[in-house]
């Protein structure tokens, strides 16, 4: 029997693939920008056309049947291949143009940009545009927004894009010498007045506004104070700017504060670093271009050099 991929069948398959990947009609509807009812109806029509169930609907969840799992895998791989090819074709006419790098803003300003001269010197043939963004990424968003490659600071857990950790992160509270001179009583973590704390309220897309301080206090074996009393900012760069101005104590990420520590503009407190739950990832779609491979290799090399300097400057987190 001949099977043609009619427009209706393609729509049914797209809805089923998104549902199988998310395990939810609601999340699939959000990705496809249609209603939950429309997604459910499209999947039901596919099941009727195949004359077999693909999903077992329970009050709490959707469970794929063996046939549903098989079809879901085939569709996912097929759609990834199609989207990757389309992305390559869209880039082809402007292959001599610049490559766009979407990067977490604070990391772009304090770590990436000061090092870009090294990359430009090594690869003058590669044009590079950097955009400061920190929204979470998946395959659909990268294709839709035309994002070729990105750097993100987050806990990872990417599923449908290529993501490689190139730099881990150490957390250490920092303050200016002037602030410490005004508060000589600040000797141990329990001396931290919650009103002094400067928070990056968006450590990563979806991250809790107090996630880094809570993790640090837990690792130090100290109860966390009332964190809501401190100042809050939507970028780590802004919290660090307040610390540099003597307004309080910021949670420093080593990648963002090491230069200020080396020059004495900021002072690390309490003689201990804590391993962050988040790290820096190089994120790309499938089939990376030569420029993307060069950028990734350069980031890994710069990260290796940075880790060596970090180890000389800060105490390593305890295992």
Automatic annotation (TrEMBL):
Gene3D superfamilies per UniProt: Periplasmic binding protein-like II (3.40.190.10), Winged helix-like DNA-binding domain superfamily/Winged helix DNA-binding domain (1.10.10.10)
Signal peptide span: none
InterPro entries on file: LysR-type_TF_proteobact-type, LysR_HTH_N, LysR_subst-bd, WH-like_DNA-bd_sf, WH_DNA-bd_sf
One Pfam family it belongs to: HTH_1
Top-rank taxon, per record: Bacteria
Sorted UniProt keywords: DNA-binding, Transcription, Transcription regulation
UniProt-listed CDD domains: PBP2_GcdR_TrpI_HvrB_AmpR_like
Family: Belongs to the LysR transcriptional regulatory family.
The protein's name: LysR substrate-binding domain-containing protein
Classification of source organism: Bacteria, Pseudomonadati, Pseudomonadota, Betaproteobacteria, Burkholderiales
